[in-house]
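Quick one, probably user error.
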């Protein structure tokens, strides 16, 4: 799976384009559609995945067919060549989701987990208790899982377990 990261908007939210066989999934098209467009032209968009509904993660949604947005009724999905699990990771928001691609050992965490820290819990629908529960759930995944956060650089779960204060309280 090819992963393209496009920082978009004033907050530089990471929009991810996942590609296999000229088919793509888009994660968090936050803004700057004109920056996203060259990375999706000529490819088949299968679905759009949203980690949470803050404006910096959904700002460019109006440029896409709303039927492309994944409805999260199930926990695991196969869409075209992509297989992934949806993990509810409440804490930053009450609708926070993480997408785990086991075969690629990749996890897209939105603003739930960043390199060295976690998302804020003091905004509307944020919840510190739920954040702790979600962090404990994430720790069960393989250490070598690569974490692709909603902002900033990628990391690994092992690095976060060893260095992120919030995963150790």
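Nope, works fine. Designed sequence:
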């Amino acid at each position: 799976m090819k992963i393209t990261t496009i920082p978009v908007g004033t907050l530089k939210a990471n929009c991810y384009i996942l590609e296999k066989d000229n088919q793509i999934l888009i994660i968090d098209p936050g803004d700057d559609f004109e920056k996203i467009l060259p990375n999706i032209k000529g490819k088949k968009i299968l679905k759009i995945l949203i980690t949470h509904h803050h404006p910096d993660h959904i700002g460019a949604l109006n440029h896409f067919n709303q039927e492309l947005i994944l409805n999260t009724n199930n926990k695991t999905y196969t869409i075209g060549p992509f297989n992934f699990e949806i993990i509810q990771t409440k804490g930053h928001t009450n609708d926070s989701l993480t997408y785990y691609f086991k075969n690629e050992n990749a996890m897209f965490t939105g603003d739930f987990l960043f390199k060295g820290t976690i998302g804020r819990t003091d905004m509307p629908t944020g919840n510190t208790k739920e954040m702790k529960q979600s962090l404990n759930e994430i720790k069960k995944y393989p250490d070598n899982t690569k974490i692709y956060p909603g902002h900033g650089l990628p990391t690994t779960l092992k690095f976060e377990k060893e260095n992120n204060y919030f995963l150790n309280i």
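The two ends are 34 Å apart (CA to CA).
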